[in-house]
Known about the structure:
By secondary structure, the chain is mostly helical. It is 62% helix and 3% strand. The strands form 3 sheets. The protein has a two-stranded antiparallel sheet. Strand 2 and strand 3 (109-111) form a beta hairpin. The chain crosses the membrane at residues 27-52, 162-179, 186-207, 277-299, 460-478, 490-508, 520-539, 608-625.
Amino acid sequence: xxxxxxxxxxxxxxxxxxxxxxxxxxxxxxxxxxxxxxxxxxxxxxxxxxxxxxxxxxxxxxxxxxxxxxxxxxxxxxxxxxxxxxxxxxxxxxxxxxxxxxxxxxxxxxxxxxxxxxxxxxxxxxxxxxxxxxxxxxxxxxxxxxxxxxxxxxxxxxxxxxxxxxxxxxxxxxxxxxxxxxxxxxxxxxxxxxxxxxxxxxxxxxxxxxxxxxxxxxxxxxxxxxxxxxxxxxxxxxxxxxxxxxxxxxxxxxxxxxxxxxxxxxxxxxxxxxxxxxxxxxxxxxxxxxxxxxxxxxxxxxxxxxxxxxxxxxxxxxxxxxxxxxxxxxxxxxxxxxxxxxxxxxxxxxxxxxxxxxxxxxxxxxxxxxxxxxxxxxxxxxxxxxxxxxxxxxxxxxxxxxxxxxxxxxxxxxxxxxxxxxxxxxxxxxxxxxxxxxxxxxxxxxxxxxxxxxxxxxxxxxxxxxxxxxxxxxxxxxxxxxxxxxxxxxxxxxxxxxxxxxxxxxxxxxxxxxxxxxxxxxxxxxxxxxxxxxxxxxxxxxxxxxxxxxxxxxxxxxxxxxxxxxxxxxxxxxxxxxxxxxxxxxxxxxxxxxxxxxxxxxxxxxxxxxxxxxxxxxxxxxxxxxxxxx
Length: 630
């Protein structure tokens, strides 16, 4: 016999499993989702180290001249060495009066440029040199040095960053429906495996050595003085383009594994804890940044660093079997027995009584079977009793024994219904069968049209999209600019700006419910805007690093509640479509950021991107104030 009213998954989680729907089982699922987020952080920000501009590194020049008799190249190299407090590469004697040659301290005589020829041929910067005039000291440190992605070829490094975010944006759009159709755990497992394979291939011997690496190998084999190949050609040929395709694919798959891990972690949590669980799962992204610094120090080579990131992605496959599929998804797809098997796992790990038996009707409604929660039906027959009940297909004992081993049920008809939990809150409708994806797609399309037709909802939608776009540009802009626009150690600067994110998350977790999400996101956006503008007018040093830390703190804190803030702006019937568009706006910000940094003017205005990010943040803050007033 079943109850008269259908129930929701939240009712089961809160009434039967854990304290208000949270316990050790939910914590384990949250940790696995957090680990997936950590690997996503490794994948996303490894570009900071693997695509580091060798010319922007602190320390002495990372190159040397191919020909020691090339006076123009040697003079430029000596200037840079002296500027960093190092001895020049070649010691020159003063020329005798009227002489056009100068002797080196090793008594070798080379042509000494006169004043006219010196001014004519003296390069003003590294980019004035021909690729054949120099060789990288350690071309394996960065893909940019191995494939000569410097000077007029630097745009190719920015293109790698842009296409990764383009792939990430595509993955968010594709794998949402894939996870709805095929399950959260399956999506996570497949994407994690594919991500590990694609990432490993992008740094494998399948990618031939670039011209910078070949030139350095030739110089080492024949001696620097005998080599005339120099830095080789520019761009790297087919190896670069193959890496570009694989990097774009890894961005797409990275979005799939992050989405699968996040949804799997939060769907097992009751509504009371769901917001905190989502915030804590996202906070593992910061620990991924810390881990990336350690890996980059342990594996300085860009290929080895990439392979270590691939190894961490593959390790996520070892954690997936520890948790079952989302019971919410199983119920939506007409599999109540498997859903209860997942709920039994939650009950066993949480050390609570098992949930009641569930029945999914042909209409897709889920009911609790009355009389099936008796302890006598859970422990098997009492001593001395017949075991015939366990063989009766109509008995509760028989049905419970078949939970794990039963095959997948045929999905019921595609029918949707609304349910209300005990607290009077409207819960998510349960849609079963293949109609789930179609209903979601049709609902999003209809909701988006409705949101754009009405002026009020259109203003809210465009405002939330601009805010999330701006936060994304500022967040990724500060991170990606560390290697080129912020002076000092790349590893230390990256670590410090990552550490600045953690207080933002913790502060929000403690104060958001008190001050409200609108106030929290407004303060974070204002802080990011002011810090970025100040960073644009700072010449460098510890002050600029501190301002970058403050800017990233504001961005990360505001971004953490950004989607929740956007959800509060729209009614239930428009919420799903609006959130989808707002999330895509944030992905678009990541795509635009490398282009913004690439287009910065040289010289005194090279920090102009910081000013642009700051002004955008202040404009977003003004929009937030207007939204709040309305």
